[in-house]
Design brief:
The chain folds into 5 domains: 39 residues, no CATH class; 70 residues, OB fold (Dihydrolipoamide Acetyltransferase, E2P), CATH 2.40.50.140; 77 residues, OB fold (Dihydrolipoamide Acetyltransferase, E2P), CATH 2.40.50; 74 residues, Nucleic acid-binding proteins (OB fold (Dihydrolipoamide Acetyltransferase, E2P), Beta Barrel), CATH 2.40.50; 88 residues, OB fold (Dihydrolipoamide Acetyltransferase, E2P). It is rod-shaped, with a radius of gyration of 45 Å. The strands form 4 sheets. Strands 1-2-3-5-4 form a 5-stranded mixed barrel. Helix content is 27%, strand content 34%. Strand 7 and strand 8 form a beta hairpin. It has 417 residues and is of the alpha+beta class.
Amino acid sequence: MEEEKNIATGSKDLSSLSPRANGMSEEEEEELYLMEQFLADPAHDYRNLQYGDTVDGTIMKIDRDELLVDIGSKAEGVVPAREMQSLVPEDRAALQVGTDLLVFVVQPEDKEGRAILSVDKARQEKSWRRLQQVYEASDLIHAPVVNYNKGGLLVNLDGVRGFVPASQVSGISRGPETQKQSDMARMVGQELQLKIIEINRNRNRLILSERQAVQEVREVKKDELLSLLHEGDIRTGTVSSVCDFGAFVDIGGADGLVHLSELSWSRVKHPSEVLKVGDKVQVYILSIDNERKRIALSVKRTQAEPWATVNERYQLGQVVECAITQLASFGAFARVEDGIEGLIHVSELGDERVQHPRDVVQEGDVIEARIIRIDPARKRMGLSLRRTREDDEQTSSSDNEATDNEPDNDDDKANME
């Protein structure tokens, strides 16, 4: 009954039919068994190829203009020369009969019954899949710049062409269009580290950013550097930018800020007075904020503080040459040396009443003044222009009196004797 049920239901399990049930001899049964095994072997499956399939094949023959490839299922395909242009001469030379090759089905069957295959499109498809994985993992990749257009750079990623907008390249200036084009032309042939910011296989759209890749690398380096830095360290860095409130210095993967007040022991109105982009400077690590990833630096603290040894170089009553740096209603500030400034009070500018220091001196004037007070603890020095002039007048008066009392000739000298 079970055998009749299998036959009635169209069961394909031929091995379940015994010779007694189906009337076959042992030889016929063996042939049936072999046929069943043959059909069950995947190697004998006939694949229905379609455009866009990517299959693994084996090179059977290499001609000058084409490759003959076995793609399984008793099927052969041809790779025309036009479909393997992405292979560089080294890749072409490495091809041998028996070598495995990934191919893309361009046409399932031509007039001769062979499939038309493409190595270029297969490599492209493989690249798209890899790029999708890179995008999903937020990894960085490298690619050479092959060309450029008005909007940015064109890069090649194993057969896939990507676009890097000019705004996403740190090496392209934001000035005139001619300068942008010059910068982009200079970058052709260079290899860039990039981050994928948009990918759409269906639209063949791949947008990348060099600027974001650089920023991510810098963030990693900055984290590493922050773990190695200690307050009080002295490092050599490069000035990366200058602004009104200070200068940023790259100390090996991370930028730290040197505030205006930490640039010099002298009074500085703007950082550009003492630093410019590209300068190599030694900096002192003032503080490290790991949470906000900020580093405070100082240039002046890598140098000896002038006030610490001021008494070794200057004494009360000493006349010094100094330059007027700033005027205020109460007096004039004068730089004695880098880091040492003194105040000439308005009462010390002249014997007569002075309404404002500008009536006597101007910023930038170089004068001689007498030191009348030194206070290293408070970093203050008092200067006097009036007392210097009084001494000059006294000296001049004494010289005049001496000249008046001198004999006019030898006879007078003789009479005085």
